[in-house]
Amino acid sequence: MGFARKEYEFLKELGLGPRNPGCYVNGVWKGSGPTVSSVNPANNQIIAEVAEASLSDYEEGLQACNEAAKIWMQVPAPKRGEIVRQIGDVLRSKLQHLGRLVSLEMGKMLPEGIGEVQEIIDMCDYAVGLSRQLNGSVIPSERPNHMMLEVWNPLGIVGVITAFNFPCAVLGWNACIALVCGNCVVWKGAPTTPLITIAMTEIVATVLEKNNLPGAIFTSFCGGAEIGEAIAKDSRIPLVSFTGSTKVGLKVQQTVNERFGKCLLELSGNNAIIVMDDADIQLAVRSVLFASVGTAGQRCTTCRRLLLHESIYQNVLDQLIGVYKQVKIGDPLEKGTLLGPLHTRASRENFEKGIEIIKSQGGKILTGGSVIESEGNFVQPTIVEISPSAAVVKEELFAPVLYVMKFQTLKEAIEINNSVPQGLSSSIFTRRPEIIFKWIGPHGSDCGIVNVNIPTNGAEIGGAFGGEKATGGGREAGSDSWKQYMRRSTCTINYGSELPLAQGINFG
């Protein structure tokens, strides 16, 4: 049986068919849960069907994964790195097809879809190098003939729950590191992007099989909240990495904390760009467009608030409205498209509700503000003039809506930047060193990502990615983020015949 539409035929190259089992447990594909449809957000037509995981599938998968962990953690770290290197090579060979699937199923434009898969390839390369650098340390002991060491060991299993907006890159940030650190991975992909979950898992499974390793090292489930809750509650999973909303993230954290597990949270963003009076205006306008319209405003690092110095306010706004009106909206797989659809019909409805709330709180729509009548979930990129104290500005509307506000001093701009519950990304445009160093210092931005003269999005894998406050405090990808995926032991070795603390005691 073939796909309903000819343009979906390329999915066969990724091991996908019109009907697919949606969980990979103990090296076998199955799915005894409900059947769901994967929908193309550009036209709301069904791409393919997937049988989700049941709780019995989950339990079978975790038992096998728990056994596989005993094997995997004993494989030398550089050998684990070699497996991740091979995963990167297979991803390279499937880059175009997998990138196309990301665009088709998620709705981001094709260069973004391909770029997302490239990010996992880059993470594989990064993790391969890391596999030879999981170094501990030697600490001077205050006791004679004693040696003190810090040793890093695997946790065992890492649970990864990812969101629809980056349906495979976030897996890469976590899984590449977790695997070289000696952990098995249990992945629950987003319920609305099951085909990406299956295609990515198929690639990892192929490499494990080729190397005669247990498939259960990488266990994956398509499913909804029920499977997510099972992961959060499961004491066999010492670390749960969750990407999603602050509301759900808080529940996950509470559940994991109750069993003394560890959480790595990547939650909401409400990111601001500040444009100072001395900024390169053209650079700022291009950056704001890229940061606010890309991925239809559905990145966690999307620019949602634009803070303009009063002296350049109208100039920047006029230019920005001009470029917004030139944005080509359409099928994300078509060349030249800059703005694809929102991911679901519900997202489109949230956009409409959001616009009504904005108007009720004194927001003035400068451009956009409407849904586009079509089969898909398309909306207009929107700019809103609004007070920074409006309640709606403190929330994250996951759509291409940009709030614009005026400020007079740097101090005021920083206060507005820091006035929201979220603390993911932030950026300032200026040429003045004294402003730059204040911005990145203790009285500057309170975010995990603090940029200068670049947009809020486009983070590199070499740095630790994540944010503060209601963004959750987690860090993924580069720097020393790997330490979250391991447990630290402080080891003291006495290589002499004396026990210094027992001197003066006669043991007979």
Q: How is the CATH topology of the largest domain named?
A: Aldehyde Dehydrogenase, Chain A, domain 1
The class by helix and strand makeup works out as alpha/beta
- Which residues sit in consecutive blocks of at least 5 with pLDDT less than 50? none
Largest sheet: 7 strands, mixed
**What is the arithmetic mean of pLDDT?**
97
Going across the biggest sheet, name each strand in turn. Answer: 3-2-10-9-8-11-12
Number of domains: 2
CATH class of the largest domain: Alpha Beta
Label the CATH architecture of the largest domain. 3-Layer(aba) Sandwich
Oligomeric nature of the chains? single chain
Q: What is the number of beta strands?
A: 24
Helix content range of the residues, please? 25-40%
CA-CA gap between termini: 85 Å
Large-scale geometry: globular
What's the tally of helices?
Answer: 13
- CATH superfamily (homologous) name of the largest domain: Aldehyde Dehydrogenase, Chain A, domain 1
User: How much beta, percentage-wise?
Assistant: 15-25%
**Overall radius of gyration:** 25 Å
Protein architecture, described:
The structure is a single chain. The protein is of the alpha/beta class and 508 residues long. It folds into 2 domains: 6-267 and 472-489, 3-Layer(aba) Sandwich (Aldehyde Dehydrogenase, Chain A, domain 1); 271-460, Aldehyde Dehydrogenase, Chain A, domain 2 (3-Layer(aba) Sandwich). It has 13 helices and 24 strands. It has helices at 55-72, 77-93, 95-106, 110-130, 169-180, 194-210, 225-233, 246-258, 281-293, 313-324, 345-360, 410-417, 433-439, and strands at residues 19-21, 23-25, 28-30, 35-40, 45-51, 137-139, 146-154, 157-161, 184-188, 218-221, 239-243, 262-266, 271-275, 303-309, 364-367, 382-385, 401-407, 422-423, 425-429, 449-452, 464-465, 468-469, 476-477, 486-494. Helix 5 (169-180) links the parallel strand 8 (157-161) and strand 9. Helix 3 crosses helix 4, helix 7 runs parallel beside helix 8 and helix 9 crosses helix 10 (313-324).
